[in-house]
Design brief:
It is a single chain. By secondary structure, this protein is α/β, with parallel strands linked by helices. The protein has three domains: 15-110 and 186-460, TIM Barrel; 119-171, Oligo-1,6-glucosidase, domain 2 (Alpha-Beta Complex), CATH 3.90.400.10; 468-550, Golgi alpha-mannosidase II (Immunoglobulin-like, Sandwich). It is built from 16 helices and 21 strands. The protein has helices at 26-29, 40-44, 47-53, 88-100, 119-124, 186-202, 227-243, 257-260, 278-288, 292-299, 327-337, 353-356, 361-371, 439-443, 449-460, 465-468; strands at 21-24, 57-60, 104-110, 138-139, 160-163, 168-171, 206-210, 248-251, 272-274, 309-313, 320-321, 344-345, 348-349, 377-381, 470-474, 481-488, 491-498, 504-508, 517-520, 535-539, 544-550. Strand 15 (470-474) and strand 16 (481-488) form a beta hairpin. The longest helix has 17 residues, at 186-202. The radius of gyration is 24 Å and the shape is globular. It starts with 20 loop residues before the first strand and ends with a strand. It binds beta-D-glucopyranose. Residues 70, 73, 110, 174, 210-211, 252, 317-318 line the site of beta-D-glucopyranose. Beta-D-glucopyranose binds next to loops.
Length: 552
Amino acid sequence: MNGRTSPGSPGDPLWYKDAIFYELHVKAFRDGNGDGMGDFKGLVSRLDYLKELGVDCLWILPMYPSPFRDDGYDIADYYSIHPQYGTMDDFREFLDAAHERGLRVITELVVNHTSDQHPWFQEARQSTDNPRRDWYVWSDTDDRYRGVRIIFLDTEMSNWSWDPVSKAYYWHRFFSHQPDLNFDNPAVREEMWNVMRFWLDMGVDGFRVDAVPYLIEREGTSCENLPETHDVLRFLRERLETHYPGRMLLAEANMWPEDVRPYFGEGDEFHMAFHFPIMPRMFMALRLEDRKPLVEIIERTPEIPAGCQWGIFLRNHDELTLEMVTDEERDYMYQEYARDRVARINLGIRRRLAPLLEGDRRKIELLNGLLLSLPGSPFLYYGDEIGMGDNVYLGDRNGVRTPMQWNGGWNGGFSDADPEQIYQPLISNPVYGYQAVNVDSQRRTPHSLLHWMRRIIQIRQTARAFGRGDIRFLKPANHRILAYLRTYEKETILVVNNLAGTAQAGELDLKDLEGAIPIEMFGGSPFPRIGELPYLLTMAPYQFHWFKLRWL
Ligand code: BGC
């Protein structure tokens, strides 16, 4: 098993640099046994759809036994599958079926905390001398680590909660039912490695590691990004590297790029990390019709080691987080994208891509165009490829976790169960409901978003510069035009985006590329040869172009 590489990726250990990732929830994808909840059998039956879409790697949200008070991020057993999702054999079958199709799979590793239902916590709370006591972080008072911010602002008053059983406080950075593990305890580190080994032996290609900045606590600090946290991560990476080379670790650290940079270490911590601040800035740049927010954040992003890669995304299973923006920018985002307060949660917006963009196909294409052409590996969120809607009334972040819409029939083709039995209602309004927005009807419509997404994915796959190249911004006087060059070895791609809802012209200074012919990548048409003078492009509202440069 060790060092195994999946079919479809001829053993390249840097596979994640070229990969397009697809994030999905087993619960929400396809119900194979008619109990109203998605499962691995159902997912297997939809792998051909994902293959057809053209993605390379699936990121599976938590699939473990859990009381589901945080949608599975509250794990009660790290070594098994939630019975409603299937059996361990179902999981193995899924993994094999994915690999047979050349799809890789990464799963979720929630290291920072467990559910309070986890037997470790149940034991730990029994008595202060229980051997598991030191697996969690306890205190007699609730005034240690003062000043550490609260993340789930809408639900939690403190990072300490009282345990009436052992009569002490326990530390938690998220919900009070998710006690933090104590990573100062070497036994906890070893156990996390055991968990990793268990799934790596089964064949998973890597992990998205949840909430990494919060592993260690120290008095007088923010308890975030501490050097001792990096020690833990280096320990896990070293073990991974020794025993399972070619597998990948992806960090979820919702921080500024300069604070995320250390999570790559010297190439000895994470292979990948999400770049959180790019995300809101794509939405901001679009609304402001100005490239500035995006150019600024990318230009201030530090270099990362050669084997490392950013992960970028438009939407995911959480709120569109506005932690990594200034207060003014947050106000602006709320004003423009969540005027209705019910759409706001914690420091963010609980909406999907299509409704955020008012269902405007041009804006949806433009933002996907950015996602697939800016530096980093893109992560798509299930359902956004068909423009699914959301339901802000479902509470917490559940409104963006509704069942996948496969067709216009019974339960949108998600499940044969009675509609009342579905884990949460399908979207059924006339605009985004499953009768209107679904895979089947988009398959039958050549100009559907789904077909367009397949096409743009195919096109991205023809150039390695997108995944591996560097970026140089061109800065035409017209700031509504966002233009950049992506270069890798001998390949150069020119990307030009019109962020405005009106037609625009941009004059690009391409002197140093004189003589090259831009080939438009969607249709293959040659554009006029680049000369000495500024290169003039006229752009329709929200239009974008990708050109491969050819030298004759
Ligand atoms: C996950 C959330 C989850 C939280 C606590 C996050 O980073 O993305 O969905 O609620 O961790 O586990």
